Amino acid sequence: MIPTVDERTPEMVIGQLIGELGGSLGVLLTALGNRAGLWTAMAGAGPLSPEEIAGRTALNTILVREWCRAQAAGGYLDYRSDTNSFELPDAVAGALLHGPGAAMVDACAEMLCSQGAEFDEFVTAFRNGGGFGWHRHDERFWHGSDALTKVALPDELISAVLDQVGLAPGSVLDVGSGYGTPTIAIARHFPAARVLGIDYNEASVAHARRAADEAGLADRLRFEVGSATDLPGSGYGLVTFFDSLHDFGDPVGALAQARSVLADDGVVLLVEPAAADRVEDNLTPSGRMFYAVSTLICTPNAVSQVTGQEDAAPLGTQAGEPLLRATAAAAGFGRVRRVDVPAPMNLVLALKP
Ligand SMILES: C[S@@+](CC[C@H](N)C(=O)[O-])C[C@H]1O[C@@H](n2cnc3c(N)ncnc32)[C@H](O)[C@@H]1O
């Protein structure tokens, strides 16, 4: 049981910090196991000695031994002292190799590599309050973020959401399209629609264009550099925000823009990380992760876009439904419907003027 704040001693907090350091390094260890083939080599194999694991992976036995010990201390491997062997439990294999665990952690490790390299700059930006734009990360970050999108928003889920919204739009605008993964899913879902993705980060747009080419969709799927508060075109049947509204400096302005380019019978689809309505209900392991992402990634990007604006109101990554509804209302949307999706990490709203 976690002691209450009043019962804690400084020594206990140091212990907590040490656990935290192990956990943080564990992200890299788990990604290492993924990239070096260690998890795969151990899956279903029963107890194996470091020598046997090294033999299966063509790795250095001493390095493998230390990796195994670290993972056993972290609870991801079982250790048998009588045979000095390590076993990958079925539940861990299920989460890492048959579930999204390994891909998720690997993507985060990629993002952390970029964030580590730019950390001094980030600290300076945090201290001077100017924020830190998405474009200031490097390619590893954008790639890792896209890999997370592929885990969190697989094509089938996007299709299920679009089915629920029940439209057949002639044209679609995806705002904050990143590497274009959801945008491509939209174009596949609506084979007759013209689809445009816009993102302010040139490098992401260039990557998305290549992805559209490779998907064979370039004749009706385009990506352009553009700002959420200055949207191109008009008369869209659908305007989408996949995990992007909370990244914008002016979310009300972005939704008001979306409303202005929407067809009369059009819909805005808002996909945001799921969150409870009140801060106190988000103080959970998942909320902790999302608030950390908010502090280190999304909100600094938003703040970089509002410097000097007195009424700026970035949402944060755990906005919750009431604040999202209020933001939609402030942008002129009178009808807001929660879309049920079989994905507990996502909160999806359909907005109509
Ligand atoms: C979390 S990513 C989501 C990307 C994509 N929708 C996905 O789900 O993979 C947020 C995106 O918003 C973009 N972005 C941030 N501020 C923007 C702005 N003001 N206008 C347009 N795009 C912006 C970033 O470059 C980034 O690609």
Automatic annotation (TrEMBL):
Coiled coil: none
An example Gene Ontology molecular-function term: methyltransferase activity
Domain of life: Bacteria
UniProt-listed InterPro entries: Methyltranfer_dom, SAM-binding_MTase, SAM-dependent_MTases_sf, WHD_Rv2258c
EC number per UniProt: 2.1.1.-
Gene Ontology BP terms: methylation
Domain Methyltransferase per the UniProt entry, residue ranges: 171-290
Keywords annotated in UniProt: Methyltransferase, Transferase
Boundaries of every S-adenosylmethionine-dependent methyltransferase Rv2258c-like winged HTH domain copy: 28-96
CDD domains: AdoMet_MTases
Protein name per UniProt: SAM-dependent methyltransferase
Lineage: Bacteria, Bacillati, Actinomycetota, Actinomycetes, Pseudonocardiales
